[in-house]
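Side project, low priority. Logging it here so it doesn't get lost.
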Amino acid sequence: MQKRSRLRMLGAAVVIASATGVAAVAIQPATAAPVAETGAVAHFAVLGAKGPAFGQAEKAVTDAGGTVVKSWPEIGVVIATSSNPEFAKIVRGMPGVQGAGATQNLAELAAPPAATTMSTDSTARSAAQGSGAAQRALEDTEKVVDSAKGSLADPEPLAANQWDMKMIKADEAHAINAGSSDVVVGVLDSGIEASHPDLAANVDASRSVGCTNQGVPDSSPAAWNPTTSDHGTHVAGSIAAARNGVGIVGVAPGVKLASIKVVNDDGYIWPEYAICGFMMAAEKGVQVTNNSYFVDPWYLWCKGDADQKAVAEAVDRAIQYSHRKGVVNVAALGNSNWDLSRNIMDDGSPNNGTPIERDTDNTCTKIPAEIHGVVGVSSVGVKGLKSYFSNYGRTETEVAAPGGDRMQVPSTPDANGRILSTVVGGKWGYKQGTSMASPHAAGVVALIRSAHPDWSAQRVVASLMHDADRQPCPTGTYDPDGTGNWAANCDGGKTGRGFYGAGLIDALDAVK
């Protein structure tokens, strides 16, 4: 909930077997449709007052020569474009403007950089442990697995490989409460394959929306279906794959899913996409969101920079708006094996141009995991130990959850330490990462909301943490493979706070 990180939508996919399809929706707050400008334009977030005075910020945008792309009067944020690289500086000095900054580091106005790639936690884009054998191993694809059609009276055909569900006692929880269809989990990600045989019954098309067209909501199925990534589909399965005699089962198989697409085809999550995602989750009655990503192009958004400060504030306003609407937001802490409670050398930002080396402190924040009120989740493997790649931190980690770890091998038919879940093409596959841990926590939150529909978001989070099973810190330096490459030190002793926060999530206690 507070400090720093680097990688992104973590995951090493594996394929497994079955079908495909989709559905629709509507809604959106005050918007000026995107206007084509001649030549290249950059995107900006402009902060203004909420309420009647908000119009001043919109007027300032146009007076400064910019174009209003999307207005969010509820939070006093305007998303704008301009071909002038000085636009943010100019508009900051105008009446009614409280701040402004380029959302994509003005990269749109520069010559296209050499490809660096995705902002997903499955892709490493940093120097430290972001390349080389360790990171490639993290992203390895595993064997293909088929799913036979099973019986509703028996465990799901692939359940024997779901060590993660047994670890958090989800199988026992389902005997009491498998989740309510009145509870909707918004998956802010790369889209959900709505026709997947394990997901089709639970995807709510009426609450699904795409946000990757400049942060302007689009309810058409094409806008929220996956295009270049199976990441969101995998996340969705861990949360709510149905108990239907096919494939696997999710943590909360009785709840509904909303596909809120915030990842574009290049793998980036720009601030305007995230703002749209949180706002739409709040407006569409979503009670829980999962966020297995960080907002690009900065791994850490620093308040010492006027642009970064303003853009971070814009995203924060959207998150706090969703909190006020009762949404519980859950987020992955990232995959750099970083102690987020300490100062970090960030040499991978911005990730859409030429990175600069920055010494960052606690005025720099990973968004959304370190935003106030967001539940930050670290990852463990089958042995209950911190996943070798997982970020951690005494004040940043709320809870831990199974996210997989190839170094921790389970006694399952596939003997695969990664997480088995749904992938595109009607198949199933294995991934590892804090991106896989976070949806397990989101699923438990959904169970709590199902069991206690009248509880506030704050009480739900308090229950999640209270019910978590304490995990003590390892003795001495934790060195999972003995090479020193993934060495880490856990603060907190018997409490395990540094690696595991309040502890490992417990689905059974959530529904008691």
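Brief comment: The first strand starts at residue 42 and ends at 48.
Revisit when time allows.
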